[in-house]
Amino acid sequence: MQDTLFKPARISVGKLVAGFVLLLVLLMLFGVTQTYAQSVRAPGNAVNLDDGIEDGPSNALGDDSQSDFWRNFRGGDPNDIKQMISALPEGAVMTTTGEHWRLIRENYIRKYAGWFPLGVIAILALFHLIKGKMRIQAGFSGKTLPRFNINQRVAHWFMASVFIILGITGLIILLGRPLIAPIFGKEVNSVLTSAAMQGHNLFGPLFIVALVWMFFKFVRGNFFQWVDIQWMIKLGGFFGGHVSSSQFNFGEKSWFWMVTLVGILISVTGILLLFPWLVEDLRWLQLSTILHAVGAVLLISVLFGHIYVGTIGMEGSLDSMLKGEVDENWAKEHHDLWYEEVTGKPAHEPAAKEEGTS
Amino acid sequence: MTFLQFVEGPLFYFSAAVFVLAAGWRVIGLIRMGRKPDISPPKGSAGAGFIKGNLRHFVPRGMFARRTWIHFVAGYAFHIGLFVLFFFGAFHIDFIKQYLGISWTPLPRWGFILASEIAFAGLIALWVRRFSDPVMRLISDWDDHIGTWLTFLVMLTGCLALQESHDVLRGIHMLFVDIWLIYFPFSRLMHAFTFFLSRGHTGATYGRKGMNP
């Protein structure tokens, strides 16, 4: 009777999500190739200033004549000129930070930002080709241990969902002009960037909520211990050998603190960019765009490693975040100290006993 | 006829007609089903039980409050957020006025954005709980996931079109609205209209027996 009431759901959530996302992307690409996509106009919330633009802005020359200043500047004594410049509010005749910011953004961030995630993907693909999937050496035991409760799992996936949306929209905003415009055209880039900007601004505050939620759900167990140094020295056992680990290993702890600290950086700079009137000095906003982009690219790049280890890279890992449980053998092999802590049993048989039995 | 004109014109009329007729058909059908005649002497009021059953299920029982807090908070966040952004968004009020000729005071833009964020947060939390809770995953089927994703895409495409500077973005939003309207009456999304009937039915049955629903 139970079987007929509740049929096990034969559904692949991943395929469903991929299908919907593909549909959305196809619609956007199909839509923007239509001729009417050229009907670009001012944003709906744009304000028409009725302040007599035809007559030019008022008081453009200021209240004081600057003719004496420029006359001295052109032909005056160099020492006088130095004094004059130092007396200016900015301490300079011309501020060049805007140009520096533009050069950093164009020549470094936009130029190399896309290569970092691609580089990580390439390294992971190479690693997978050489080493293959990390199997549970003793095989599945059939017995499981609870690892993450439902609150932790929902907090994790909530963060993941919001971060994926922000990552895609952010990359479109950052790399649309150098990558999308040359291939698909400026119209397509205009549509995608407009959409991405709105999505990014709307989901940005949710990232802060997710960050706080996730921090409090996972901070316990993520403080570094001495055993983590051994893990680091042996490179996590990815290249052979066994390394002991508590509930979270060094890699997981590093990822947690990276998400937390870089997440705070991205949140603060994002708030400044979303509400630019919070600061008077434009340089804070210029710095914010750079830090925001660098932090985001860093997180996106490392995220691929996190996804790899959590899915196809390591057998049995995904269960911890989908079902909340892990196989006992998985726990023994990857988190032996945690296994001993929660079960009270030794993760590995003592050597003496092994010798005795053999 | 452009894509936008099509999705806001013929396709919208068709999907709205399907929505109204099919949803009305189902609700009227449910009401007409009535309930089995009960010849036992009533020990309480079925009418009061109907109302009580509806009201009491707005909050979880005390013993379940702690373990269902995500569901509770996310559920209210999503539904209230969606209600506010749909009925008080300036674009939606303009759209309704265009077809029905009625309008009311919209929320300021910041209010709309805030309501959208609350609704998105709720919907995402509800969906990730659906696949990360073993029991929820077991009792969920295609209909649950498609309904959630269609609703998410309607909201997402609407949010992507917020700048109102490209017709194609508005067109994609309207296309998903049309699909959603057609899918709605034949899916569990119908709970928007039927939840009070099912809660009321349970409440009335219990009420008549003199039990607390």
Largest sheet of chain A: 2 strands, antiparallel
The CATH class designation of chain B is: Mainly Alpha
Q: How helical, in percent, are the residues of chain A?
A: 55-70%
Mean pLDDT metric of chain A: 83
The helicity of chain B comes to over 70%
User: Low-confidence parts of chain B lasting 5 or more residues at pLDDT below 50?
Assistant: none
CATH topology of chain B: Fumarate Reductase Cytochrome B subunit
Cα(first) to Cα(last) distance of chain A is 51 Å
First-last Cα distance of chain B? 55 Å
Order of helices and strands of chain A: HHHHHHEHHHHHHEHHH
- Biggest chain pair interface: A-B, 50 and 45 residues
How many helix segments of chain B?
Answer: 11
Order of helices and strands of chain B: HHHHHHHHHHH
Tell me the radius of gyration of chain A.
Answer: 28 Å
Task: Tell me the number of strands of chain B.
Answer: 0
Number of strands of chain A: 2
Fill in the keyword field for this structure.
heterodimer; A: mainly alpha; two-stranded antiparallel sheet; 2 strands; disordered N terminus; B: 213 residues; mainly alpha; Fumarate Reductase Cytochrome B subunit; 75% helix
Describe the structure.
The complex is a heterodimer of chains A (358) and B (213). Helix content of chain A is 65%, strand content 2%. Chain A contains 15 helices and 2 strands. Chain A has helices at 2-5, 13-33, 67-75, 78-87, 97-112, 115-131, 150-184, 186-218, 227-233, 250-274, 282-310, 318-322, 328-334, 336-343, 351-357, and strands at 144-146, 325-327. Chain A has a two-stranded antiparallel ribbon. Chain B starts with a helix and ends in a 5-residue tail after the last helix. In chain B, helix 7 runs antiparallel to helix 9 (142-160). The longest helix of chain B is centred in the N-terminal third of the chain and has 24 residues, at 10-33. The mean pLDDT of chain B is 93. Helices cover 75% and strands 0% of the residues of chain B. Chain B has one domain (3-28, 61-208): Transmembrane di-heme cytochromes, Chain C (Fumarate Reductase Cytochrome B subunit). Chain B has helices at residues 3-8, 10-33, 46-56, 62-65, 69-88, 90-100, 109-132, 134-139, 142-160, 167-183, 191-208. Chains A and B meet through helix 2, helix 7 and helix 8 of A and helix 7, helix 8, helix 9 and helix 10 of B.
